[in-house]
Specification:
Distance between the termini of chain B: 44 Å
Number of helices of chain A: 2
Radius of gyration of chain B: 31 Å
Number of strands of chain A: 6
Largest sheet of chain B: 6 strands, mixed
Shape of chain B: globular
CATH architecture of chain A: Roll
Strand order of the largest sheet of chain A: 1-6-2-3-4-5
Oligomer: heterodimer
Structural class of chain B: mainly alpha
Largest sheet of chain A: 6 strands, antiparallel
Order of helices and strands of chain A: EEHEEEHE
Radius of gyration of chain A: 11 Å
CATH superfamily of chain A: Ferrous iron transport protein A (FeoA)
Largest interface: A-B, 36 and 47 residues
Helix content of chain B: 55-70%
Chain lengths: ~80, ~900
């Protein structure tokens, strides 16, 4: 069992399952709506040229989100 | 009774494409999430009794985004007879998440699996029957783009299921709580779920006791499942979908596709930015520099010059226009009028709309390459004519593809709106309109021989007021068209979303998002398309803020002002740099300040964005979108600018007693006009900025029609400043020289030209890519050309600038131009300051009417429009004041009231910048 880390800390190419989505309100609801729910597999595809945001694959589509938002997502 | 069918679905799932196919209308379609901003209605082809409604794209029915609220309100309050859920087949899971919510509304639902061909290309075999079984509602495989399955879908729309689908089940505990709530309040399933989710809209109007009851249920659930309610519900939906995903999708392996490979290069950490810069440079140089500039040159030098001008002179004057000009006029008019209907006809016969550009090519070739070798010229022209002939023949002979469509024949009536861009035109309709429009064009052209011999007042109104004003704006059209076309291309193929992805880092730091980049870039060319480009920003606050800030960027029309002030101060490069820096700094500071106000609070806007797959752009689609935007622009020029030009003309040509002044003949007379009087009233407002004379005040006002008018107005007002006969004559000589140059085929001189010529001067300025070169142009031209062609000394040639300068530092006496020059050298700092403050104010204050109109349109609210314009003016005033007052303090050491006010203002702005963010209202 790997130690928990946030989506933000994951390296490019790394793939993990979502443990929990922290944060609250609109942002959290949006993340959940986009399919970042508990158990969903997320792969980090790449980081934007200026280091932020990042692009991930979740539920077989590409999603871009900022690192600050990625920090809300705790991965198993 | 009319049946109402709503199209709902995720952003970028192809709702609008499907809507267009079903209704025969053509709305914007972009490969960019969030293209549909307003909701649009149409009728099902052949079935006028069925109304279709295109709802904005949403990911969920949560209460957070305005689009979601609108959609939910519509579905629940207005209860359409059927909801067509458009699902992107390449992205099933996330799209079905919304489906699961739509099914809970209790309305009948049909699922349209759109882009099925793309999914199958990717190697996904989707079992529609299995999906239908699990969802409990009909599922149709369609592809709006390739006309697959539309017959089946239309059949379903004709005889829709009456029963609501069976919603997906949550886990047992959750279901228990939901049914308890449904029984207690006898409400829909969706309402019960929303109550559980603590949705304020669902809880509205409930008693405290009830709230406690719901709260209790929620807490119980959260405790049992060890998670919070939002997560439980969302996971519940996704789990239910995943439970049958394997069965529906089969074991097909998804191949790594083209889009992914392309993306690896286009958003690469190193090359990505390089490619991005290249793409943006290409767009800018093609639209503003090369192709667009040819078009604009042609419009200004040929179309609005001899052609329209000649026709007009013939119509309202006495001199009948030449046959050549009239033929050209008729041809251009017929072409413009026939453009939309031809586009619809091309769409009908399945040809790319880009073929239309063949029709313009001969005009441009004639203009751009007048010195081609005879043979080459005739070969190219011949080829173009043959191609055009074939296009016309095809339009007249071919049967439409839509006619013999898979869902049967579509009878077409002749429409009465030939300028309509949407839908398709049949053979007969096309032929009829072609003949009618040609007859109209020739008829109108023949008016050029009438020679009405109108009064001086009327012809002055038409030529100096309306044609000068509207023509100046329409001259931009070619550049705008090219720009719109290229942007549509980027939008359609999916690159725009990547631009936002790459640029977000920079823009987030000033409170905007990556999507604000495109409007700001476009605004360097012109603020009108810049404001319109904000439409793709889905977040409302970001959109409003970008609209408010985007016109701070110095646009093409502001270049003559920069050039003029550069010449006045004598520091072209510095002034140009300051102008651009001030524009960019205003955007940045504005972003920082506005983001901290209550209006834009809610502070942090998430940037969770889907990156859609790339696809090959569709010609018709791109052309349509570009043309739709051009049409909006032309409409603006035809209404707002038309009126504004007429009003300004009236104010500058009449006294309060309605005595006609004819300023075209006697430029000095403008001093008695209403405009001058109004200028006198307003002048004191500007005196703290260092230019409290009526002339710059008037110039500022006329700048509202079009910013290049500022220079033109100076030309007029200074030519008429009484005793300065010598300067005036010098100026006249300069402009004569310029006109001679123009006739000789040379590019016109910029700032020295009065009024109408400012437009062509602008075109020349736009050709110079480097701002410093641009700014340096006028002086060089004056220096070099005047001695050659008019034999005047350089000193006299500069008299016009001296004239401006003499005013700028308040010398009203009649002085020799040389004396003025000496005067400037001694008191240079003061001059530079007020000139600088004047320039800053004019660059930053309310944009031209056209841009204000675009702001009104995009803000979709009068209050917001006035707030935006007020903010810009206030900001411009403060910046100009600070520069002038602090500048005076530094250069003269005098510290008085003005400086004190400036200090207070500076502290105020600093406090706005540094204060903490207003509490986030929506962030709960």
């Amino acid at each position: 069992m790997q130690a928990e880390k946030t989506l933000r800390e994951m390296a490019t190419g790394e793939s993990r399952r979502v443990q929990k989505v922290a944060g609250r309100g609109a942002l959290r609801q949006r993340l959940l709506d986009m399919g970042l729910t508990k158990g969903a597999r997320v792969t980090v595809r790449k980081v934007a040229p200026l280091g932020d945001p990042i692009e991930v694959t979740v539920r077989s589509y590409e999603l871009s989100l900022r690192k600050a938002e990625a920090a809300c997502i705790i991965m198993a | 009774m009319k049946r109402r069918i709503a199209l709902a679905g995720n952003p970028n799932s192809g709702k609008t494409s499907l809507f267009n196919e079903l209704t025969g209308a053509n709305q914007y379609v972009g490969n960019w999430p969030g293209v549909t901003v307003e909701r649009k209605t149409g009728h099902l082809k052949e079935h006028e009794d069925i109304e279709l409604l295109d709802l904005p794209g949403i990911y969920s029915l949560s209460p957070y985004s305005p689009e979601e609220v609108v959609t939910r309100k519509y579905l629940l309050d207005e209860k359409p007879d059927l909801v067509v859920d458009v699902v992107d087949a390449t992205n099933l899971e996330r799209n079905l998440y919304l489906t699961s919510q739509l099914m809970e509304t209790g309305l009948p639902v049909v699922v349209a699996l759109n882009m099925i061909d793309l999914a199958e290309q990717k190697g996904q075999k989707i079992d529609a029957q299995a999906l239908s079984r699990h969802l409990g509602c009909p599922v149709v495989k369609v592809s709006a783009l390739h006309h697959i399955g539309l017959v089946d879908l239309i059949d379903l729309l004709m005889e829709p299921p009456t029963a609501a689908p069976t919603p997906l089940q949550f886990s047992e505990v959750v279901e228990e709580a939901i049914s308890a709530l449904r029984i207690k309040y006898s409400c829909s399933r969706l309402a019960a779920v929303k109550m559980l989710e603590n949705d304020p809209r669902a809880l509205e109007g409930l008693e405290v006791v009830d709230l406690h009851f719901i709260e209790e249920k929620r807490l119980k659930l959260e405790q049992e499942l060890g998670d919070d309610i939002a997560s439980i519900i969302a996971s519940g939906r996704y789990d239910a979908i995943c439970s049958f995903m394997a069965e529906v999708r089969g074991a097909g392996v998804v191949q790594g596709n083209f889009s992914e490979k392309l993306d690896r290069v286009l958003t690469h950490r190193v090359w990505g930015l390089g490619i991005f810069v290249l793409v943006m440079w290409a767009i800018y140089s093609i639209s503003i520099g090369t192709v667009g500039a040819w078009g604009t040159d042609w419009a200004n030098d040929v179309l609005f010059g001899p052609v329209v001008g000649g026709w007009l002179a013939g119509f309202i004057g006495t001199e009948p226009a030449g046959t050549e000009a009239l033929t050209m006029f008729a041809a251009v008019l017929a072409m413009c009028l026939a453009f939309p209907v031809t586009l619809r006809r091309l769409h009908d016969i399945g040809l790319n709309g880009s073929w239309l550009y063949l029709a313009i090519a001969p005009f441009l070739l004639e203009y751009m390459c007048p010195h081609l070798p005879e043979i080459l010229h005739s070969i190219i022209m011949g080829a173009l004519y043959v191609a055009n002939g074939f296009m016309l023949l095809a339009c007249l002979c071919f049967h439409g593809t839509a006619h013999a469509n898979r869902y049967g024949s579509v009878p077409r009536r002749v429409g009465f709106r030939p300028l309509k861009l949407d839908g398709r035109a049949g053979r007969v309709e096309y032929l009829l309109w072609l003949v009618a429009l040609s007859v109209i064009s020739v008829g109108v052209a023949l008016l050029g021989r009438v020679g009405l011999d109108c009064s001086v007042q009327l012809s002055s109104l038409v030529s100096d007021g309306i044609v000068a004003g509207v023509g100046a704006v329409l001259g931009f059209l070619p550049q705008m068209a090219v720009l719109f076309l290229l942007l549509s291309l980027l939008e359609d193929c999916g690159y725009m979303a990547r631009v936002a992805f790459m640029m977000d880092r920079i823009f987030r730091s000033i409170g905007l998002s990556g999507k604000s980049f495109i409007p700001l870039l476009v605004s360097m060319g012109c603020g009108v398309p810049g404001v319109m480009a904000t439409r793709t920003i889905e977040n409302e606050k970001d959109r409003r803020m970008t609209i408010m800030l985007t016109t701070f960027v110095p646009c093409g029309a502001k270049l003559p002002i920069i050039a003029l002030i550069g010449a006045v101060v004598g520091q072209n490069a510095t002034i140009a740099t300051i102008a651009y820096f001030a524009g960019i700094a205003s955007v940045i500071l504005g972003g920082l300040i506005l983001r901290k106000t209550h209006m834009f609070a809610g502070g942090y806007t998430p940037f969770v964005m889907e990156l859609p797959a790339y696809h090959t752009p569709r010609g018709t689609n791109i052309n349509l979108r570009a043309m739709e935007r051009c049409k909006a622009f032309v409409r603006k020029a035809g209404t707002i600018i038309f009126l504004a030009s007429a009003i300004i003309w009236f104010a500058s040509n009449y006294t309060w007693n309605l005595k006609f002044l004819n300023t075209a003949e006697d430029e000095a007379a403008v001093e008695q006009s209403m405009l001058a009087d109004v200028g006198h009233q307003f002048a004191p407002i500007f005196s703290p900025l260092g230019w409290g004379d009526w002339r710059p005040a008037v110039a500022t006002v006329t700048g509202l029609v079009a910013k290049e008018n500022v220079v033109g107005t100076f030309g007029v007002l200074y030519a008429g400043s009484g005793e300065k006969a010598e300067e005036a004559s010098a100026e006249a000589q300069v402009s004569e020289t310029a006109e001679t140059n123009e006739e000789e085929g040379e590019l016109p001189v910029s700032a020295t030209l009065p009024k109408c010529n400012a437009m062509s001067a602008l075109t020349m300025l736009l050709l110079q890519a480097d701002p410093q070169v641009r700014a340096a142009v006028p002086v060089e031209h004056v220096d070099e050309e005047v001695p050659e062609s008019a034999g005047e000394s350089g000193e006299e040639a500069q008299a016009w600038y001296m004239c401006a300068l003499s005013w700028l530092f308040g010398v009203e006496e009649d002085e020799e131009a040389t004396g003025v020059a000496a005067e400037i050298q001694t008191a240079g700092a003061f001059t530079s300051l007020s000139a600088l403050s004047f320039m800053l104010f004019n660059l930053l204050c309310a944009p031209c009417f056209a841009a204000c109109g675009a702001i009104r349109r995009e803000m979709n609210s009068g209050i917001w429009t006035w707030f935006a314009i007020g903010y810009m003016c206030a900001w411009a005033y403060v910046v100009a004041l600070l520069v002038y007052q602090f500048g005076t303090w530094v250069s003269t050491g005098i510290f008085s009231t003005g400086q004190m006010v400036a200090c207070v203002l500076a502290i105020f702005i600093l406090s706005l910048l540094l204060r903490r963010r207003a509490s986030a209202v929506s962030d709960k």
